[in-house]
Write a structure and sequence with these properties.
The complex is a heterodimer of chains A (about 650) and B (about 180). Chain A is α+β, with helices and mostly antiparallel strands and about 650 residues long. Chain A folds into three domains: about 200 residues, Aldehyde ferredoxin oxidoreductase, N-terminal domain (Aldehyde Ferredoxin Oxidoreductase,  A, domain 1, 4-Layer Sandwich), CATH 3.60.9.10; about 190 residues, Aldehyde Ferredoxin Oxidoreductase Protein, subunit A, domain 2 (Orthogonal Bundle), CATH 1.10.569; about 210 residues, Aldehyde Ferredoxin Oxidoreductase Protein, subunit A, domain 3 (Orthogonal Bundle). Chain A has 24 helices and 23 strands. In chain A, a hairpin with a 7-residue loop joins strand 18 and strand 19. With about 180 residues, chain B is of the alpha+beta class. Chain B is built from four helices and seven strands, in the order βαβββββαβαα. In chain B, the strands form three sheets. A two-stranded antiparallel sheet of chain B has the order 1-7. Chain B has a two-stranded antiparallel ribbon with strand order 3-4. In chain B, strand 5 and strand 6 form a beta hairpin. In chain B, helix 3 crosses helix 4. Chain B starts with a strand and ends with a helix. Classes of the chains: A alpha+beta (about 650), B alpha+beta (about 180). At the A-B interface, strand 14, helix 7 and strand 17 of A face helix 1 and strand 2 of B. Strand 14 of chain A pairs antiparallel with strand 2 of chain B.
Chain lengths: ~650, ~180
Amino acid sequence: MRYAETGYNLEIDLATGNIERVATDPKIMSQHLGGLGSSIKIHWDRVPPEVKAFDPENLLIFSTGLLNATPIFSANRTVVTFVSPQSDTLAYPMMGGFFSAELKYAGYDKVIFRNKSPEWVYLYINNDKIELRDATHLLGKGALETQDLIRAELNQPKAQVAAIGLAGENKVFTASIEQARSSASRLGGGAVMGDKKIKAIAVRGTKDVFIARPEEFMGHMKDVTDYIHFRNNNPLPDVMTIMSGIGSPQEMLHTDEKWHTENFAWGNARTRRRDFWTDEIEESWTKSQHGAVKRLISCFNCPQHCGALVSPKDAPRYMAKCFGKLTYAMAAYVDDLDFGWKILQRASEYGVDSFSTPQILAFAVELYEAGILTDKDFEGCPPDKEGRFLWLLDRVARREGIGNILADGVYFAARAIGNGAEAYDHNTIKKHEQLPVKLGTLDPLYFLMYSTNEKISITQMEGQWPQSAFPTMEQRENFVKDWPQLPDDKFKQYVLDWDIRGEKAIPYYPTPQIASEIVDWMETMHNIDDACGMCCGMSSFCFKPPYHIHNYPKLITAATGMEIDEAGLKKIVERSRNLHRAFNNRRGMSRVDEKPPADHWKKRFPELEEELLSTYYTFKGWNHDGIPTREKLEELDLGYVADDLEKRGILKNGKN
Amino acid sequence: MAKIKKKIRIIKIDADKCNGCRTCEVMCSSFHANPPYSSNNPARSRIQIVTNRLKDIWLPVMAGEYTESECMGRNKYVIDGKEYDECDSCRASCPARDLFKEPDSGLPLKCDMCEHEDEPICVKWCLVHALTYEEREEEREETETPQPNEMEVGLQALASKHGLQKVMDIVNRMAKKG
């Protein structure tokens, strides 16, 4: 009897159409939990470093998390893993929605695709009945449209469908996988899905998911629920409105966007508009949002409602969440939020990442204005800002004309275009577009998170630590009060000491050692979430969240029957993280790749940055190049990884 | 004739507040598992969220009576410009659809209002308050409807399955033999 997990994976060989239901080794849970953790293990075992994103051997895994489809609130993430066409590392974008729970109810923890299908197909999982079905009639259909077409075709209104749009079909490097109000967007999962000729996966499940110790589990669940009520009734003071509650940043609910619009950069991650949020803008944006948002909606089994059903003025309905409403408008320098809703609809149907894609479009506009791209490249493009962005989005999704080059993302496009275009690629890390943030002084925490994390995207690393120091001691004291989530009380003192200027301010405070401790804490929590399938909006990406290092072990123990304490839980995710790291190291990633974009901060501190990196590497048990040492790997029962890295000459003498 | 008081238990559904999370389905099936909370499976839930996302339809429906045959016709509701599919608001476990049936056996499911709890479990766990619980008392005239005994219930089931005439024929035959 397996608890919380189902104990079965689906293995799909797309080349032959062979489908197998494979029982998994129960030991994997004690070594890697599930979700991202156990998926990393499969990639390490089966995908050698020579395999590129569009090779048949690249695995594409859709994974549930350990706690998905248990009654615990907000564990609804599907983790999609694959070698990325953009970064060439192991990417793991995640989506909320309803897919992972349905997959577990169908009786599977993961769906593992290998090879490529000769024809376009979609996978239909209906409990034990699984088939690859012809998808040629769905080609060119929108990612959202496809989901409803498949539900109607199967006469399964309760089936959950994850689909790609035209961008995925065309292997656009920023293509996403869309599902309900969610998407797995970053690093080109949609392109890998398209390369394998999978248009969609539909799943319907009507089986039971079991809990090992029901009474104990419900006791912990009550505590979590009480805390959710408490946090919903007590928003935090002294932080920006969208971050004062729990759940993802509440951008579909709140209309106050002063913080984003004035602190994030507009255009190609270029300009801060510090006086943007006027009374007129506030009035117009509030009206636009209230007109567009029909209803606030949730993911599976979550009491928050971070998403929305959106009905734009002159475009079909769709669902959205979080920051996408702003990214296109800001990248295009368009001050009208109606444009944001409209273009996001088209982008969602094409199925593209709404962080990376707007920056690709803004990058193209800059190149055109600089004369590097010409009228010939922009032939047929409308002259207005809005029309230009829509036109460019069409070209990218369809890989037409200049769009074919832009579709590989800013890094590769800049090098393909040449003629000075490389200088406009100023906001990528490991070839991946970052949030458009341009700030003043280097922040040591963000420097480490940006540079070193396997996610290569800040929003899945940060979260529980304030984004800047509180100006007054009273605010600091207020913040550290009632902070049961802390792994150690010493973090309170760090908040109290942290100043906005002077010796105890950025870039020298938090010190490299303290910065390492804070970053490690945040990464650990994200990795626990990613293994459990927990939405980080209710955990690691939110101040004072309902889930934390002290209640996670109790929940996991009660759900699975596997006794685990805090130290044991930390060790498991550290093991998976180091295995992930080693997977990327084996593909060539090392210290030279671990740097933020050159002008991310106006004031840089090269010596301090080197010290930060070295201190953090030492803290993590990695060598100067950022490779886990044999000692660290053996401590985590990963001796076989050390052997492999030594055999390949990546580790020498176990250390260097 | 004497008056008696009857407690009417009501789940008030404010469909406009439903955020479509389906926690009610998870918790209903979890509570009714044996032992309670040892498993969950929304397909076994006695409350289902009828969903059509782009039409802005999230409609919680509780399982009502089992019916042997489907309705003679169908109807469609249009409310506030939203067209609901056929049978969307119907509570019956009915041969016309899969809703409200145990997934393994096909046996009908029926909401029991979580009889011995203070309030139904789905209400308790609906944190967005789309579901609320109300009770009221109704006075009714006492009618002397005799409760069927065990044998009658059995006979009714046989009659329902085979037809009353057939049962009577067999009883007659048995009586003659006796």
